[in-house]
Design brief:
- This protein is an alpha/beta fold.
- The chain has 10 helices and 5 strands, in the order βαβαβααβαβααααα.
- α7 crosses α9, α7 crosses α10 and α8 packs across α9.
- It starts with 8 loop residues before the first strand and ends in a 9-residue tail after the last helix.
Length: 203
């Protein structure tokens, strides 16, 4: 919470509506305590009061057009690039390349959260989803399956490693998704890392 009792704010500066939607969803999955607002330009951000935001996620084109503004706020600025070469052009900033597989992008955002907020101010609640009275905690075997899923193993490999049948793996996977109200492997990855079931270097 900030001094006004509101949720911490982050800003996305981007002119691509679809990209903003995807980025907002991912940021709020990794840091559910935050609110995300989007702007087309630095002018819009200034009108909203740039000092209100704890981070700016800025597409490289917007940063290059207002480089000095962001240089003065570089500790708060994360630049979103599409090519590795772009990061080399802006060495003063922390950059995340967004044209990578979703699993790598999730890993980058989790790493950023853990580096920037080591006290876990914006982390998800460390418990399984509680939306239904029927929801139960993950069993020891489900946790084994969860760890292997987020490490990138496919169902057959999980079955071989745990010496269980493929059908059993599929059943465990379905139960895990239901218990955590998860809709993707990315959601499982965020949950597993934030709860300490796997290290970020394992995903």
């Amino acid at each position: 919470m900030n001094e006004h009792g509101m949720r911490p704010l982050m800003a996305i500066l981007c002119q691509d509506t679809l990209a903003v939607m995807g980025l907002r969803q991912m940021l709020q999955s990794v840091m559910p305590a935050i609110e995300v607002e989007a702007f087309d330009s630095v002018t819009q951000l200034k009108l909203a009061g740039e000092e209100r935001y704890i981070h700016f996620f800025v597409y490289v084109g917007i940063l290059l057009s207002d480089r000095q503004f962001f240089l003065e706020r570089r500790k708060k600025t994360i630049v979103l690039t599409t090519l590795d070469e772009q990061a080399g052009q802006i060495p003063d900033f922390h950059c995340i390349r967004i044209t990578v597989p979703e699993s790598q992008l999730v890993r980058a955002f989790i790493a950023l959260e853990q580096y920037a907020h080591p006290q876990g101010r914006h982390l998800p609640v460390l418990q399984e989803h509680k939306s239904s009275p029927a929801t139960k905690r993950l069993s020891a075997r489900e946790l084994d399956v969860l760890r292997l899923i987020v490490k990138g193993f496919i169902n057959k490999e999980i079955a071989d490693q745990l010496n269980i049948s493929l059908t059993t793996v599929i059943t465990h996977r379905k139960n895990i998704m239901e218990k955590l109200a998860a809709k993707s492997v990315s959601s499982l990855t965020i949950y597993a890392v934030m709860n300490g079931y796997v290290g970020i270097d394992e995903i």
